[in-house]
Design goal:
Layout lengths: L1 E3 L4 E3 L2 E3 L1 E6 L9 H10 L4 E5 L2 H4 L14 H10 L3 E5 L30 H20 L8 E5 L12 H13 L6 E4 L6 E7 L3 H11 L5 E7 L16 H13 L2 E10 L36 H15 L1 H4 L3 E4 L8 E8 L2 E8 L5 E7 L2 E7 L3 E7 L1 E3 L3 E6 L2 E5 L3 E6 L4 E8 L3 E4 L5 E4 L5 E6 L5 E7 L4 E8 L9 E4 L9 E4 L9 E4 L5 H4 L5 E10 L3 E10 L3 E5 L2 E6 L3 E9 L2 E10 L21 E2 L2 E4 L4 E3 L5 E2 L13 E7 L4 E7 L4 E3 L2 E2 L1 E5 L11 E5 L7 E7 L10 E6 L8 E6 L9 E2 L11 E8 L7 E6 L4 E6 L2 E7 L6 E5 L6 E8 L8 E9 L1 H5 L2
Parallel strand pairs: 4-5, 4-11, 5-6, 6-7, 7-8, 8-9, 9-10, 10-11, 21-27
Antiparallel strand pairs: 1-2, 2-3, 12-13, 13-14, 14-17, 15-16, 18-19, 19-22, 20-21, 22-25, 23-26, 24-25, 26-27, 28-57, 29-50, 29-51, 30-49, 31-36, 31-49, 32-35, 32-37, 33-34, 33-36, 38-48, 39-40, 39-41, 41-47, 42-46, 42-48, 43-44, 43-47, 45-46, 51-56, 52-55, 52-57, 53-54, 53-56
Helix pairs in contact: 7-8
């Protein structure tokens, strides 16, 4: 029922261009599934792709949940009901900027487990997962009256640069044994029996060449066409990929023979609760919003990219017989230097893709027979020129230099930039009367063909052809801007969401609750908790009052530090960090509060210990090692922010003095390239991927075994590295480590609290605090509800008992989604703020989408 050859996929023996929308059912409530699928279909997609996150369905070992918002079967049934094909990617690893790349957190407590490998200890849990999830996918396959047309094996496995054929084969055979019979696919997987896709955004000609070189008799496809990007706390807004750039890259895919496109993402959604992950590097923590700047925004509203893709899909669908049975060649036409051309051709016609790599609009012409056909192409854009395409039994398009959403049985739309002209040359199959209002013009040529010169005004015009058999054909000549009129605007409602607050302080005592004791701090997994917050408490003794430096040798999340119940500060650097605290003579109490900000989802260092996992030490020392490096045999000194060019493997050296410490930890980029005193260091963690194998990847190394008293020599292999952003050394003594810790789960919304009316809030002290309020809502107040946490610090929020995610006022995210499906007439809002900031800046806004048509009738 679904097959393929080198040119395209075939469904029921019909060549089909796969236009797929990546929509993760786990990133929006089930109540919104129908809307998002309807809009994807209306936008021209014929397929829906989704990952399946293992950890979402097995939160605790052996406890499976496929109900409600986790009902994968219902999601696939909705796809089938709407006539949408489905591509399912069940992993077991998915990445997706999702906590632990979809692997369950409790796997990290399994001794010596090797993730994503043939380790039997890992595969026994994969088998149990496949037993649950593959049976669901199986029943929705195209071969069993469903619409699942492809199933992916693993995900980006060879991006790590370590092929493991037996592991990939084990997964393939496991899916087969459980009933999968539709084609298998991989992206950077490369296993026999699967069609290989690639993931990328631009330079599709390189991807096409790679696929042609490595794989024969397979169609070219992009599994993740990155039309937007995700955002990270403290980073910049990820809206760098413009709609115009998207259109260009779409045409690049066509010109290079791609016949399967999965837009990653088409709808991004939201990382509710604590599901957001952590990508490669030190502080790459994913925001709650996974909007991704794509076709449908976080609130399921169309964007300009939606309209770009909708037009593109109409064009592809019209010329599907060409693109799915085409040959790609260079076009033998003379063009100005800034312009280049590629051609796809088939028995059904051909398309020239004229690319303008210049920064200005360019004009040129092509010849068809003896006719000179002018065209213009925008700066840094591609113009498709259609040639020799039949339109029903009415006429043949000899040349079309305007863009179009396609020619139907009786009408077409041709668009271009406002004020530009396009050309249409047709050969009619019967006599026709022509109505061509100015400023458009036409001419009947010597061979009987008709040449139209069309002007794209801000005001639409209609060219009408009336044929002698009574049929008619109308051509709408419009400006590109008019094709984007269906993007809805948002009308803000003036609903009064005045919020009256109650407050309750978080109990930081370790007298009651789920308290565990251990000699050293327990990370989240060893404590037995998926995510949320953990508190840590211990005591230490000093001989005299004053300021002391405390070294935290291993932390993987920001840490709030309190000494003797007074806020001392926050550790923002991850890996290891230091803090100076005021202590009193005698016994002091150290309390820490840690929010799990997500496990690594894309690196070889997956499974890192979250929270605090090594005992802090009193009286340690922090040293930045970025300055004063020397090329061996050279007197000049260099800073790691600007590493000089070094030929060969000449040493890059630095010394530091150790005055009495017996433990050392190095954190930064490139730590695996370091030798200390001529000996290799023990790398505790290294975040390395296939896209950064030759660069200075982030990592943590223990130098204790090679550390010596007095002068130490660092030898750093900087071959191929131009700069290092962090290279920090932390020194301490093992005997000064603080032991005998208590751990407790904190910030639990379900625990009873002593609420009090917040009359005159105080801003003088930093105390983790809860806030509660209520607000009324009705559907006529708008289905899009946003909340802002202005002036707050960092924490989580709940509406009607549902955790809607983390918030953190470091940007770029400023607004947070409240799904309308959660709301009732009166709603409870609960907030946990780490610093207890006053909530008088919190605001709720509601909006109603209004289309331009509705606006014009107002």
């Amino acid at each position: 029922m679904i097959t393929y050859d080198k040119k395209s996929w075939k469904i029921d023996n019909k060549r089909t261009f796969i236009l797929s929308a990546a929509i993760h059912y786990f990133r929006l409530p089930q109540a919104e599934w129908d809307e998002v699928l309807e809009k994807a279909k209306a936008g021209g997609c014929n397929t829906i792709e989704t990952y399946v996150p293992w950890n979402f369905h097995e939160m605790n070992e052996g406890e499976w949940d496929f109900t409600g918002d986790k009902d994968l079967g219902h999601f696939l049934q909705l796809c089938a009901d709407k006539g949408l094909y489905a591509i399912v990617r069940p992993g077991p690893y998915i990445c997706a900027e999702w906590d632990f790349g979809g692997l369950p957190w409790w796997l990290t407590e399994k001794k010596d487990i090797q993730y994503r490998s043939c380790d039997p200890n890992f595969l026994q849990y994969v088998d149990k997962y496949f037993d649950q999830v593959i049976r669901i996918i199986d029943s929705y396959q195209l071969t069993k009256n469903g619409t699942v047309i492809m199933v992916q094996i693993e995900n980006e496995f060879q991006a790590y640069g370590r092929p493991d054929k037996p592991y990939m084969e084990y997964l393939r055979e496991g899916m087969k044994a459980r009933g999968i019979e539709v084609p298998f696919v991989t992206c950077y997987g490369g296993v026999d029996g699967a069609v290989e896709f690639l993931n990328f955004w631009s330079h599709s000609h390189y991807a096409a060449a790679t696929l042609d070189e490595r794989f024969t008799d397979q169609p070219k496809g992009v599994m993740e066409f990155w039309i937007g990007w995700f955002e990270q706390w403290g980073g910049t807004k990820a809206n760098q990929k413009t709609p115009e750039h998207l259109e260009r890259e779409c045409y690049q895919l066509l010109s290079n023979g791609f016949t399967a496109i999965n837009y990653y993402m088409y709808f991004g959604g939201t990382n509710f609760d604590h599901w957001g992950g952590r990508t490669v590097g030190e502080q790459t923590l994913t925001t709650t919003s996974y909007d991704y700047d794509v076709a449908l925004d976080e609130y399921v509203q169309p964007t300009r990219k939606y309209e770009v893709l909708k037009r593109f899909h109409s064009f592809v669908n019209w010329l599907e017989p060409i693109f799915t049975n085409a040959e790609q060649t260079s076009a033998d036409i003379k063009l100005p230097d800034r312009l280049s051309a590629r051609k796809v051709t088939s028995p059904a016609g051909e398309v020239l893709f004229i690319e303008n790599s210049g920064d200005e609009r360019a004009g040129a012409h092509i010849f068809y027979g003896h006719e000179r056909i002018p065209f213009t192409v925008e700066a840094n854009a591609i113009l498709p020129i259609v040639r020799d395409v039949e339109v029903e039994d009415l006429f043949t398009i000899k040349v079309l230099t305007g863009q179009t959403t396609g020619f139907g049985s009786d009408q077409a739309v041709i668009y271009h930039e406002t004020g530009q002209r396009s050309s249409l040359l047709i050969q009619t199959k019967q006599k026709a009367e022509i109505q061509c209002p100015l400023p458009n013009r036409y001419e009947v040529l010597e061979d009987g063909s008709i040449s139209f010169q069309l002007f794209h005004s801000i005001k639409p015009q209609t060219v009408q052809l009336s044929f002698e058999d009574g049929s008619t054909f109308s051509i709408e000549v419009v400006s590109r801007i008019l094709t984007e009129d269906s993007i809805p605007q948002l009308e803000q409602h003036s609903a009064n969401y005045s919020l009256t607050w109650e407050a309750a302080e978080e109990d930081l005592s370790f007298i009651s609750g789920n308290v565990k004791a251990a000699d050293k701090p327990l990370d989240f997994t060893k404590f037995g908790q998926f995510s949320g917050y953990l508190g840590y408490e211990s005591e230490f003794t000093v001989d005299e009052a004053g300021e002391k430096t405390i070294v935290f040798p291993r932390i993987e999340d920001p840490v709030m530090v309190f000494c003797n119940d007074q806020y001392a500060g926050k550790l923002s650097k991850l890996g290891a960090a230091t803090i100076d605290v005021q202590v009193k003579q005698g016994t002091n109490k150290l309390t820490c509060l840690v929010q799990n900000m997500g496990r690594f989802n894309f690196t070889q260092a997956m499974g890192e210990p979250k929270g605090i996992s090594e005992a802090p030490a009193i009286g340690g020392k922090y040293v930045s090692l970025r300055d004063n490096w020397q090329v061996e045999g050279c007197g000049a000194y260099h800073h790691l922010s600007k590493i000089p060019g070094i030929g060969g493997r000449i040493g890059f050296l630095k010394t530091f003095v150790n005055d009495g410490y017996d433990r050392a930890v190095l954190v930064g980029e490139g730590v695996s390239r370091v030798k200390v005193n001529g000996k290799s260091v023990e790398v505790l963690m290294e975040c390395q991927t296939g896209w950064s194998r030759n660069s200075a990847v982030y990592g943590i190394a223990d130098l204790s075994e090679v550390l010596q008293q007095g002068e130490n020599v660092l030898d750093f292999d900087v071959q191929g590295i131009s700069s290092i952003r962090r290279f920090d050394l932390y020194l301490f003594n093992e005997e000064e480590q603080i032991l005998h810790w208590k751990m407790k789960s904190l910030a639990r919304v379900e625990e009873a609290k002593e609420w009090r009316t917040l009359a005159q809030p105080s801003k003088s002290t930093v105390v983790p605090r809860w806030y509660k309020s209520h607000f009324n809502w009705s559907p006529d107040q708008g289905s899009i509800i946003k909340i802002r946490f202005d002036q707050m610090s960092k924490g989580c929020f709940w509406v009607n008992g549902f955790c809607l995610g983390r918030y953190w006022n470091v940007g770029p995210q400023e607004e947070y989604k409240i799904p309308a499906s959660l709301l009732k007439h009166q709603n409870e809002l609960i907030i946990f703020d780490e610093e207890g900031q006053v909530p008088d800046g919190i605001s709720i806004q509601s909006f109603t989408p209004i289309t331009n048509m509705e606006k014009s009738s107002m």
